[in-house]
Amino acid sequence: MKWSLILAEELVREIAGPESLRLLRLIFTKENLNEFELADNLKVNINQARHCLYELQKYNLISSTRKKDKQKGWYVYYWTFDHKKARDLLLKLKQQRLDKLRKEVSREKSGNYLTCLQDGTVVSANDAMETNFRCPVCEEMLIYKRDEKRIKTKDQEIENIQNLIEEGIEIPEPPKKRRKKTTKKKTKRKPAKRTRKKATKKRKPAKRTRKKSKPKRKPAKRRAKRKPAARKRKPAKKTPTRRRKR
Ligand SMILES: [Zn+2]
Q1: How far is ligand 1, taken at its centre, from the CA of residue 128, in Å?
Q2: What CATH number matches the domain at 5-82, 1.10.10.10, 3.40.50.2000, 3.40.462.20, 3.40.30.10?
Q3: From the centroid of its chain, how far is CA 181?
Q4: How many A from CA of 146 to the centre of ligand 1?
Q5: What separation in Å is there between the alpha carbon of 148 and the centre of ligand 1?
Q6: Residue 235: C-alpha distances to residues 7, 32, 149, 157, 231 (Å)
Q7: For the chain, what is the largest distance between any 2 Cα atoms, rounded to a whole number of angstroms?
Q8: Which of 22, 48, 97, 130 could connect to 44 by a Cys-Cys bridge, CB 3.0–4.6 Å?
Q9: Model confidence over 99-128: pLDDT tens digits?
């Protein structure tokens, strides 16, 4: 089976709220979505949008990069949906559902359990006695009669999940190729920056040589100023002559 928005929706419906489902539809085919633009598109405020993002981030279904907004001075996060992790989580939940269904069906078929015709809850005879043979979920009367229809639908679901797990979910290649291209572009940009730095380095020493040629005249003036300072010390030596007077 090929990975699709329908499968991703099935996953998000199970783990997060309806707002996150709307977010998924925006983020599914695009990369590096600005969180403020996401909030605008969802018609919610930034905190509500972030709540939806965190619901998906809890399961590592989305990843982010941050960039500093030069005008506002704060960091803005750009979000990308992780299709591979979403696929893996969906398969994990499918496996859990499969294990649960197999247990329920084997109990129902054994006849040692009571069933609720209302919602399909299966309860052991001992547990049923504790609740006076009423369903612990909806309080409907529990019955011993096997619900053949419910067993059939559960058997069908078990078969569907088994087939899905055996076949696996293939993630289409186009989104992968796009990611590789973007990483290649980044590596190409780096050498370009290095050549610019070298060019600026070459210019700087040229400016320094000009500056150095001018100050050469200034030390000559300073030396002239120091000479009077040396003369001032000489009168200090005259003080011992005052001691001679005392
Ligand atoms: Zn019930």
Answers
A1: 12
A2: 1.10.10.10
A3: 21
A4: 15
A5: 16
A6: 98, 78, 121, 110, 7
A7: 134
A8: 48
A9: 999 998 988 888 788 888 898 888 888 899
